[in-house]
Write a structure and sequence with these properties.
GO molecular function, one term: geranylgeranyl diphosphate synthase activity
Pathway: Carotenoid biosynthesis
Organism: Paenibacillus typhae
Mean pLDDT: 93
Distance between the termini: 27 Å
Number of helices: 14
Largest sheet: none
Order of helices and strands: HHHHHHHHHHHHHH
Pfam families: SQS_PSY (PF00494)
CATH topology: Farnesyl Diphosphate Synthase
Keywords: Carotenoid biosynthesis, Transferase
Amino acid sequence: MINESIMRECEELMKKGSTSFHKAFAGLPSPRREAVHVIYAFCRIIDDSVDEPDKSPYTIHELRWHFTRLEEAEGHFIWPALRWLFASFPKLTHEPFLLQMQGQLGDLTFTHYETMEELESYCYLVAGTVGEMLLPVLREDSDEDVQNAGISLGIGMQIVNIIRDVGEDLRRGRRYVPLELMRKHGYSQEELESGVVNQRFINVIEELRREALGWFEKGLAHVETYPPESGLAVELAAAFYAAILDSVAEAGYDVFRNRAYVSDEVKLRMLGRTAARYASRLGGRPGKAAVL
C-alpha cells in the first residue's frame, strides 16, 4: 500500500532536484510513477551526501549502513519508501543502489580523471546504475540488450551533467573532463582552472557531446519494446537532456559561469512532438501522456 504522505515527500524531492526528470516521467501510470519518484529521491539523497554534506540528513557512510539494514531503518521518509519499492517491484535488486553509493564514495577521493575509460567507469557507477534501477519499474521483462540500453542512457546523461557542470565541479575541486581529451585538443589544466573558453576548449566539449549522443543512441535502441507510457517517458528524458547540449552551445560554451538549462517552452514543444508519435499506442490521447 502506498503511503501518500511519503510519496509526496519523494516527488517533491524529485521536483526540486530535476524538473526535467519529473516532467518526463509524469505520464507514467501508478505505481510506476511513484516508484520513479522513490528511486530519484534516494539517488538525490546519495548525491547530496557527497556534494552538499552540510544539507544532507546522512553521510554517504550512514546511508550505506542503513540501506544494508533496510528492514530496520527508520528516521527518514526514504526508508519506508524504499521498503515499498522493493516489495512492489520484486525484480528490482539492491545491487545497483550499492554500486551507485560506491561511485559516489569515489568522489571523496578520486577527483581528477585521466582517461575516457576512467570517466565511463565512473558514469556507469553513478548513472548507468540508475538505468538498471529503472528497468524493472518501467517494464515487466528485460534481456541483456535492453539492460545494456538502459545503462547506456544513464551514462550519456551523466556525460551531459559533466559538460553542464564543469565550472561547478571545479569549485568543488573536481575535474571530470579527462586529461587525455584535453591534451588531444591542446587545452591545459591551467586554462581550465582559469575558465578560458577558446576553440580548443570548444573542441573538448564537442567531443564529449558526441560521446554523450552516442550513448543516447545506444540507450534508445530498444525503446519501442517498452510499454508506451514508459517508452514516452524514456524518450522525453533523453530529449530533455540532449537539449542541454544545445543550450551549452547557444551560450557560447561558457560552462564556467553559466549553467545551461532547457526552458519549459522548449520542453513543451518536445513533449508535443514525442507524444504525437505515441498517440496511436496511447489510445489516441497524446495530451494525457505527460503533464508539463
